[in-house]
Amino acid sequence: MLKTIQAFIFITAFLTLFQPIDSYAHPGRTASDGCHYCRTNCAKWGEVEGARHCHGGYTAPAPTNNSYSPPKTTCPANSTYNSVSNDCTCKSGYVTSLSKTTCVKIPFNAHAVNSNTDVWECDAGYTEVGNICEKIKPPEIIDESTGSVEGAETDTEVEDLKVIC
């Protein structure tokens, strides 16, 4: 009977050593006190990025002035940092430049386009003049039989319009 009990204890101890144990490790080495700063996939592990936390029951001391702070993303003027996509997004009324380094203002009477040569173009009825969109003037219609200009009420207006044409 004693041998049966000893065999039972031996087998139980042997099997216990090889039982899988759930563990939830995350990347990052620890300092001698068992603590470290979270710098990768922090939200996935339920940690705050740049926060110091400990393993093995140790409580981290209060942060000091020389504690780690994550690098700040610098976005160009007229843009904001989007923490979801982890990039900079141009504000309303602006579009990313062709070089992808600045935000360009979209002029009045224009809209953003997806092109290899332009980031905005003028709306219909407008033409690009420098960095603005000017309304296209309709051509004047001159009645050759009478010499009158459509829309002109005086001879001076007729002469002015003839000079323009």
What does this structure look like?
The protein is an alpha+beta fold and 165 residues long. It has a domain at 73-105. Helices cover 16% and strands 23% of the residues. The chain has 2 helices and 12 strands. The chain has helices at residues 2-17, 155-164, and strands spanning 35-37, 52-54, 79-82, 87-90, 94-96, 103-105, 110-112, 120-122, 126-129, 132-135, 142-143, 148-149. The strands form 6 sheets. The chain has a two-stranded antiparallel ribbon with strand order 1-2. A two-stranded antiparallel ribbon has the order 3-4. The longest helix is centred in the N-terminal third of the chain and has 16 residues, at 2-17. The protein is elongated and about 130 Å long. The termini are far apart. The mean pLDDT is 75.
Strand order of the largest sheet: 1-2
Helix content: 10-25%
Q: What is the count of DSSP helices, taking H or I runs of 4+ residues?
A: 2
Order of helices and strands: HEEEEEEEEEEEEH
Outline: elongated
- Mean pLDDT, nearest integer? 75
Radius of gyration: 37 Å
- Terminal residue distance: 121 Å
